[in-house]
């Protein structure tokens, strides 16, 4: 791909970035520029600060500099330890999110608060919880207790590992990566990477895999499943996306972060007639809630709440001058928001004891008093409407798309073409048939963040378009999902980007060619879908003509996701190299040798066009091996 030097392919982002420049407001791109050149030791993973004798760094450019840390740790050890710690931090973030959802379910005392009772009873059955003679609230409590047990149970493997195909489970057991309790695996990474502990890079990565697995097959899956039980399993719906969803005449509330417990309560509170009336008294026409990052995905999928934008648009939303409050909980919240809100009337409201920001107003969210607190927060926003300063500048750009493809929604969609005489409904058969016949060549998950090392959104969108034209179906989550919906790839019109086969499938099933499967924790939905397809063909996930890509990733969570996907047998393409290039051994292990163990591996490719070529070649190779 020609790099045109643009910071973004998104018109709304370009417009507000220019505004920021004109007003002398510093954004993520300016700070990234000021940071150049970035530290080469850090970039390659060669700096160690694991003990008080350090920091130590390995010099790669000359043999004259240090070739080992003060304790003797080699580049392999230091790089592997740094990588493992990042993975553990990522797994911790996703898993702690899952824990909070489980706690929210545990405290439910009214059946009306359970939105998907069928899913609750299905999960109770899967986990061997007796339901006879128990009411819904009691079952919810027991399911929540079981989920909470996954974090600290003394014996046994993660319960959700059983959802994988048999061959995969066996492989995990044989290779010593079948994870036990979530907290235990994460603690073990911190322990084994402590000074003077594990020095064998392969063993460090093995432990990192165990921790990563507690994310995808543990905390994230708990987060997804229990959120569906509590707030409803997403089904397809139309949604508007991009900063143009903000409304000049309304009180605008942007909810940003990750956990749906807070955002669900804000959505309900913003509809409270008393507060709407109050907003009108302040001169507004009403209250408009929009979501950002993964919180945006959560409430869009369940309620059709407009999606304001992704990670690199959070600062820009405030620069519209139209946001009365930005309400945040955890993860992916730039501390710079507090500085930028000083230039506008926007109130930055933090709500989690895990994520306070100096300069923000802190109103702690408590699930037990969710509605009461949410009302208080919404009222703060409403009363701030009259404080707008200067001109409001909302870009016109917004697009429309169909989102909300949970696994259940996909199966329901597939049922439309299932021949019910020959085959029962509720299976992935139509999807497998389309892949086998070659109408669909395969499927790719495009996930992850934005990163200044890549032009904003451009890599997500270019990669998706390149895959669509090769008849490869795309599923997406997180900020990748925002990029795709903004670019119109979740509309029927996007069929124009597809090859003939994919266009026919989309028409037949009445789906867009890029399926929105949710937030970052919802990558667990993709794991279950892959498992179902692999089980259906009697094989393993690593047999499937599929891949994953994170072309603009930046967070530690993305590293955990990448590693559990690889350990699950998936080819994972990263658009930005992780900090492992300082050790040839570690880099070669992760990008080559690991494939002979798990059937999945990492690929690094920053150019999305070349990335699509590599992914397509991988998919064709898998097809050949399957004999299709
Ligand atoms: Fe240096 Fe070893 Fe301490 Fe790391 S653990 S800072 S390499 S002495
Ligand atoms: S929000 S982890 S920037 S995808 Fe999940 Fe986006 Fe990445 Fe955060």
Automatic annotation (TrEMBL):
Q: Which EC numbers does the record give?
A: 1.2.7.4
| MF terms (GO), sorted A to Z | 4 iron, 4 sulfur cluster binding; anaerobic carbon-monoxide dehydrogenase activity; hydroxylamine reductase activity; nickel cation binding; peroxidase activity
Q: Name one GO biological process term.
A: generation of precursor metabolites and energy
Which species does the entry assign this protein to? Thermosediminibacter oceani (strain ATCC BAA-1034 / DSM 16646 / JW/IW-1228P)
Source organism, top-level taxon: Bacteria
Self-association and partners: Homodimer.
- What NCBIfam families does the record point to? CO_DH_cata
In terms of Pfam families, this protein maps to:
Prismane
| Top enzyme category | oxidoreductase
Organism placement in taxonomy: Bacteria, Bacillati, Bacillota, Clostridia, Thermosediminibacterales
Q: Which residues bind [4Fe-4S] cluster 2?
A: 48, 51, 56, 71
For the ligand ([4Fe-4S] cluster 1), the binding residues are: 39, 47
Which family does the record claim for this protein? Belongs to the Ni-containing carbon monoxide dehydrogenase family.
Q: What is this protein called?
A: Carbon monoxide dehydrogenase
Q: Which cofactor does it need?
A: [4Fe-4S] cluster
What UniProt keywords are attached to this protein's entry? 4Fe-4S, Iron, Iron-sulfur, Metal-binding, Nickel, Oxidoreductase
């Amino acid at each position: 791909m020609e790099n045109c030097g643009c910071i973004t392919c998104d018109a709304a982002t370009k417009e507000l970035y220019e505004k920021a420049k004109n007003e002398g407001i510093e954004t993520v791109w300016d700070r990234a520029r000021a940071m150049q050149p970035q530290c080469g030791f850090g970039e390659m993973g060669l700096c160690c600060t694991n003990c008080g004798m350090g920091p130590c760094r390995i010099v790669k450019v000359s043999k004259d500099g240090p070739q080992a840390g003060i304790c003797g740790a080699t580049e392999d050890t230091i790089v592997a330890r740094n990588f493992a710690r990042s993975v553990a931090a990522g797994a911790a973030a996703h898993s702690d999110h899952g824990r909070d959802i489980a706690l929210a379910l545990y405290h439910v005392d009214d059946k009306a608060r359970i939105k998907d009772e069928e899913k609750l009873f299905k999960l109770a059955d899967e986990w061997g919880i007796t339901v006879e003679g128990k009411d819904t609230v009691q079952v919810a409590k027991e399911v929540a207790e079981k989920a909470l047990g996954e974090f600290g149970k003394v014996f046994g493997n993660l319960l959700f590992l059983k959802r994988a195909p048999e061959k995969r489970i066996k492989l995990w057991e044989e290779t010593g990566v079948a994870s036990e309790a979530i907290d235990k695996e994460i603690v073990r990474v911190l322990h084994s990477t402590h000074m003077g502990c594990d020095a064998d890079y392969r063993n460090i990565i093995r432990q990192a895999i165990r921790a990563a697995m507690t994310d995808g097959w543990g905390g994230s899956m708990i987060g997804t499943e229990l959120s569906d039980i509590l707030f409803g399993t997403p089904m397809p719906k139309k949604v508007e996306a991009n900063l143009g969803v903000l409304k000049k005449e309304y009180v605008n509330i942007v909810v940003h972060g990750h956990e749906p417990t807070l955002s669900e309560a804000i959505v309900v509170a913003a509809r409270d007639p008393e507060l709407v009336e109050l907003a009108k008294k302040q001169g507004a026409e009403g209250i408009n809630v929009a979501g950002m990052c993964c919180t945006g995905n959560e409430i869009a999928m369940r309620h059709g709440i407009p999606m304001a934008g992704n990670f690199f648009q959070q600062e820009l939303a405030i620069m519209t001058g139209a946001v009365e409050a930005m309400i945040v909980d955890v993860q992916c919240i730039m501390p710079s928001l507090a500085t930028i809100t000083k230039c506008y009337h926007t109130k930055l409201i933090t709500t989690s004891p895990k994520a306070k920001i100096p300069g923000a107003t802190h109103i702690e969210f408590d699930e037990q008093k969710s509605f009461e607190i949410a009302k208080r927060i919404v009222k703060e926003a409403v009363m701030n409407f009259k404080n707008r300063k200067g001109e409001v500048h909302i870009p016109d750009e917004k697009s429309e798309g169909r989102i909300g493809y949970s696994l259940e929604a996909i199966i329901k969609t597939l049922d439309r073409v299932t021949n019910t005489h020959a085959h029962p409904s509720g299976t992935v058969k139509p999807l497998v048939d389309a892949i086998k016949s070659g109408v669909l060549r395969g499927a790719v998950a495009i996930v992850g963040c934005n990163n200044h090392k890549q032009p904003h959104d451009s890599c997500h969108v270019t990669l998706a378009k390149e895959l669509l034209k090769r008849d490869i179906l795309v599923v997406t989550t997180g900020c990748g999902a925002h990029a795709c919906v903004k670019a119109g790839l979740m509309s029927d019109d996007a069929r124009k980007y597809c090859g003939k086969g994919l266009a026919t499938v989309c028409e037949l099933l009445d789906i867009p060619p890029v399926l929105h499967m949710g937030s970052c924790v919802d990558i667990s939905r993709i794991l279950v879908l892959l498992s179902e397809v692999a089980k259906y063909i009697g094989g393993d996930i690593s047999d499937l003509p599929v891949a994953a890509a994170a072309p603009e990733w930046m967070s530690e969570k993305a590293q955990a996701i990448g590693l559990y996907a690889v350990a699950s047998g998936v080819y994972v393409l990263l658009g930005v190299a992780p900090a492992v290039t300082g050790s040839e051994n570690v880099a070669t292990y992760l990008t080559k040798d690991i494939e002979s163990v798990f059937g999945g591996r990492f690929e690094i490719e920053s150019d999305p066009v070349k990335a699509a070529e590599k992914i397509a070649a991988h998919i064709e190779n898998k097809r050949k091996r399957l004999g299709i």
